[in-house]
Amino acid sequence: KGHRRGVWCVAFSPIDQVVASASGDATIRLWNLKDFRAIRSFQGHSSAVLRVAFLANGMQLMSSSVDGLLKLWHIRTAECAGTFEEHSSKVWCVDIVGDRMVSGGADSKICPLSGMMGTQRGVGTWNKLYQSC
Amino acid sequence: KGHRRGVWCVAFSPIDQVVASASGDATIRLWNLKDFRAIRSFQGHSSAVLRVAFLANGMQLMSSSVDGLLKLWHIRTAECAGTFEEHSSKVWCVDIVGDRMVSGGADSKICPLSGMMGTQRGVGTWNKLYQSC
Amino acid sequence: KGHRRGVWCVAFSPIDQVVASASGDATIRLWNLKDFRAIRSFQGHSSAVLRVAFLANGMQLMSSSVDGLLKLWHIRTAECAGTFEEHSSKVWCVDIVGDRMVSGGADSKICPLSGMMGTQRGVGTWNKLYQSC
User: What is the pLDDT of residues C6-30, one digit of tens each?
Assistant: First the structure.
């Protein structure tokens, strides 16, 4: 049930007793801190996931990957809540402050996203603010 | 108006509706979050900029680079407010807490800086605390 | 008295006027901000130290290394307070929140640790929460 490639990022939930991990095996996994069992696997990236972070009071995850995608995930269902294909190469960096997110990539682009919280089943939706530059 | 090489770091201002980005094209750029246009370009590094961070309540930027330099910049004018040449090789890491900054480099040195806030046009000046070690 | 290889991480103490640095020379060093002299050297890793962070209100350090080890150190004595050998390869990432720590490695494992604060000479002890996965 564990990862099959190196783990690039780990992050505690700000709310629940869980940890998320991002791996070279292209998945994100969620671990229960009570018994440290894998409780979710988030699949959809086609290449190494470099970073994972909790959003929306721990109800969503953001992931960025070597495949050039930013993805948002619902914690409870492991469904992908959104895919942003702005980058044509590796997403190297992300900054998140409140309901604003910005990413930078190997393609020399930066991509801003804006979130609207609590719109659906208690979780937020994120949208491109503008065309990336 | 965008970057010409990969983006290594992005950071939201703590105050204004702007984002800074650091690129392999040796520049830092500042983007307006309202329309996501590039509003400043900070030029002076001779090699990839690895990290950028806001200082002094968002009125200054710090950048660290593969060229071995730490630079400080005035947001409003895009002028370089200071250059620290302590490192003879890549600046790999920086920690900033309040008016204290410390960097570490590929040259095995660490360099401490101390800031004095609000001394000139509302922005701070930074000085070497000691000879780097 | 300085490092002999590149410096991968620097961190200010949250309490004392000191800075810790992690180096490719396999040591962590502690520097006094008053005169920037090296006041401690923490030896025990066999390979580059990638990350260092303060714990327990600045009384302990955590280090993670290319040698696959997580180590905890007493600031005052420079003694190693614990070694965690869960990883068989480079420890790439660590997240620390309060008395919980989790690491991820090139071996595809993640390792959770739990701290108990203030149990001995004012400093905490850390334990494996579970077998790593």
Answer: 999 999 999 999 999 999 999 999 9
Q: Which CATH architecture describes the domain C7-128?
A: 7 Propeller (2.130)
Cα dist. A30→A1, A54, A75, A115, B47 in Å?
A: 11, 11, 8, 22, 39
DSSP-derived secondary structure letter, B75: T
Half-sphere exposure of A128 (CA within 13 A, CB side): 13
CB contact under 8 A, C6 and B108: yes
A15: closest chain C residue by CA:
C97
Cβ–Cβ gap C100/A35 under 8 Å: no
Residue A6 has pLDDT above 50, yes or no: yes
- ipTM > 0.90 for the complex: no
Question: What is residue B124's predicted lDDT score, i.e. its pLDDT?
Answer: 58
Beta carbons of B110 and C4 less than 8 Å apart:
no
Tell me the domain boundaries of chain C. Answer: 7-128
Q: What is the pTM of this model?
A: 0.90
